Amino acid sequence: MLRFRRLASVLVVAGTLTGGLAAVTAVSGPASAQAATSASTDCPWTDPGLPVATRVSELMAKMTTGDKISMVHGSVGSYAGNVAAIPSLCVPSLTLEDGPAGVGDNLTGVTQLPAPVDAAATWDPADTQQYGAVIGAEDKGKGVDVDLGPTVNIVRDPRWGRAFEALGEDPYLTGQLGASEIQGIQGQGVMAQVKHLAVYNQETNRNTPLDNAIVSERTMQEIYLPAFSDAVNAGVASVMCAYSTVNGVDACENPYLQKQVLRDQFGFGGFVTSDWLGTHSTVPAAKSGLDMEMPGALDYGLTLEAAVADGQVPQSTLNTMVSDILTQMFKFGLFDSSDTGSSTATVTSPGHQATARDIAEQGTVLLKNSGDALPLDTATTKSIAVIGADASAAAQTSGGGSSAVTSSGTVTPLQAITSRAGSGVTVNDADGSSLNPVGQAVAAARKSDVAVVFASDYETESSDLTSINLPGGQNQLISAVAAANPNTIVVLNTGSAVTMPWLNQVKGVLEAWYPGQEDGNAIASVLFGDTDPSGHLPVTFPKSLSDVPASTPAQWPGTNGQVQYSEGLDVGYRWYDAKGIAPLFPFGYGLSYTSFSYSGIRASGPASDGTVTVTADVTNTGQRAGADVAQLYVGDPAAAGEPPQQLKGFDKVSLNPGETKQVTFTLPVAKDFSYWDSTAHAWTVAPGTYTIGVGDSSASLPLQTTVDISG
Ligand code: BGC
């Protein structure tokens, strides 16, 4: 994470630190100039009418080795990553900026979107595409060419400090949502840089040899890599390699990951950038497919030039690296128009804020609602206690690190609830600022019809959580409030799963994640029923930390220089299902203010095009309009050796009261009825009978059928 943006200065990377921080010195001077970009006789490759491949080869024919070397590492500049322009060849600069939740790195005038986990909880690719479109549009306005996102690493453990900036624990959900977000970003003419390839799941030992994942090929192919494949299929321009070491080889110099899988298997044609200070060699990195070192030139630059000169790195390898980068620069029109964006521009807008609010509403998950305690009804609820620092003084709207985005105007829950409740309702605020915060909260709860307690944790890049319990006495606070008021609702702002020892004492629970700057507006809208909650969990909530898949120190964060991925395929719900461990709330779970029923499952195929089609009906059986997430899970024949069931389809359906809609899932056999055969190094279809379950969580699949596949 680089937090050293200074608009009036440029930065020189002066040394390497592990932990992802760069030591920098600020020097005065202008940012690197944009090259002239109009077609000229000197630079015929600026003609947009020529094919990209022609433009690349014409330009490269004129580049010296020094020009080429300058393209493959970071340079001084005012963005998190800067590749210098080459004005004599009309090559513009390339600018890279964080990240996965909007324009980060302390830039202002931007929209603080909900955290990516919140976007994932929508289970709606249209929402994540819109999320990406806002990110891309704001990047464009800020003069950013490459957005450093999305983060598609799998949430292997709820303690991961970056769980909030990823898209959950399931490769299919992550892949689908990541791909739609990439399309949203790139639809604005900005490249996405999907990250971090691969098997990067902890901060504790990040960017050190101790984060050495010992992981099987099958586990990588089935769990940790599919979302990158989906990103490539979505046309992602760029990939960031990870701080992790994978089976003894640094991810950023790992030929299996960067060549065999990414290029040969997935067909990636873009460029690979190292995570910041994640390049640890020159020759192995260059020869394994790392195109660009960031943020400086510690291992590339002069060292790479010397390695090319003495033949350790073939000239053809350098040419490929440069052409990978230039190809995307041409494709994204960087040579065709001058960059009009500026890092000082104000790019947030009412429209972008409306998207932020909408996604925060759609991603909020109703976990419990005893006796229809929610939505709040101002006809009967005349006083509301709004409790917790998270409701006002310290609203937890974002996680920390490179995905943190500066809010351009946070609406707190206290502000929004007060305004939505109106003058007929008394709001009793207990913000925790008193010397006796529990006493203050209990007093406010006692004199109110309803008590709403806001509780949060704080996740950040660079450190992991040591526990999944709410920190700082918040569990005791909730219990005390619940004892004082039988109508207690808890709103959680957490980056991933937390335990809830008070669950039986409270009437309702909402998981609102880190909701971004529209925090209060989104939560009030759900609390008062202006929005029907339709978010579903993208991660399992366990009953206790001892239940998680990687519960031993050898598995996480590792011992003796190795991190054993011994749970194999059994990540997330796959683990709880395989071991018969009941979670607190299962993957895919989420309630609504209305109710749904499932009927009429029908499976047909495989058809001649190699697909199985499954249809089912979803009916809104309640009194209000609402949306449910229909989910399809496949269970393989025992011989395949797969987890009991795996998500292979989902569809968010909006329904009026009494309305029924049919959902259709089209499942390619080669993709959805196959496992990775580590002997053949290929996807293989096991012949036999597959079970298909459809419902609205991994633990509630009322519709069941089977499909016979002949292999
Ligand atoms: C993070 C990346 C981020 C980069 C630039 C690194 O520490 O791991 O995700 O894009 O910093 O800020």
Descriptive overview:
The protein is α/β, with parallel strands linked by helices. Among the domains are: 362-547, Rossmann fold (3-Layer(aba) Sandwich); 594-709, Immunoglobulins (Immunoglobulin-like), CATH 2.60.40.10. Helices cover 25% and strands 21% of the residues. The protein is built from 18 helices and 27 strands. The strands form 7 sheets. Strands 3-4-5-6-8-11 form a 6-stranded mixed β-sheet. Strands 12-17-16-15-13-14 form a 6-stranded mixed β-sheet, sandwiched between helices. A hairpin with a 6-residue loop joins β19 and β20 (611-620). α2 (65-71) crosses α10 and α5 packs parallel to α7. Residues 1-37 have low confidence and may be disordered. The structure holds beta-D-glucopyranose. Beta-D-glucopyranose is lined by residues 1-2, 20, 80, 98-99, 148, 195, 275-276, 402.
Brief rundown of the structure:
The protein is of the alpha/beta class. Among the domains are: 362-547, Rossmann fold; 594-709, Sandwich (Immunoglobulin-like), CATH 2.60.40.10. Helix 4 (125-141) packs parallel to helix 5, helix 12 (350-363) crosses helix 16 and helix 14 runs parallel beside helix 15 (474-484).
